[in-house]
Amino acid sequence: MAIMGTVLKEELDRLIKMEQAYTVKINSLPKGSIRIKTISGKKYTYLMYRDGNSIKTKYIGLNVDLTDLSTKIEQRKKLKKELCEIKKDIKFIRKVVKN
Q1: How far apart are CA 23 and CA 20, in angstroms?
Q2: I want to staple 76 with a disulfide (CB 3.0 to 4.6 A). Which of 29, 89, 93, 98 is the partner?
Q3: How distant is the alpha carbon of residue 81 from its chain centre?
Q4: Above pLDDT 70, what percent of the chain?
């Protein structure tokens, strides 16, 4: 059983490092969603995101290419899901190691 405990502690350390790395990466990517508003026939692009209880709107530009920005937003969403799974695994291993 000592070997199992050692393996679980190593896995816990690995998951904690992954959690920190994912958090840094997530914080470097833009959050929110892209909204395109048509005003007088022109398309204006905005990045909308939450800041506490309020919704912030940041103007991106008029008729801009959104490929890079949308890729980064999707990457952030994917990383957040993976981070959630990592946190669940950390919680589970901590319960097992304590018992």
Answers
A1: 5
A2: 29
A3: 7
A4: 97
Contact 93, 5 (CB under 8 A): no
pTM over the 0.70 mark: yes
For residue 47, give the DSSP letter: E
Where does residue 15 rank: exposed (0-12), middle (13-18), buried (19+ CB within 10 A)? Answer: buried
User: Three-state SS across 23-46?
Assistant: HHHHHHCCCCEEEEEEECCEEEEE
CA 17 from centroid of its chain's CA atoms: 16
Band (43; pLDDT cuts 50, 70, 90): confident
Beta strand spans in the chain (E): 33-39, 42-51, 54-62
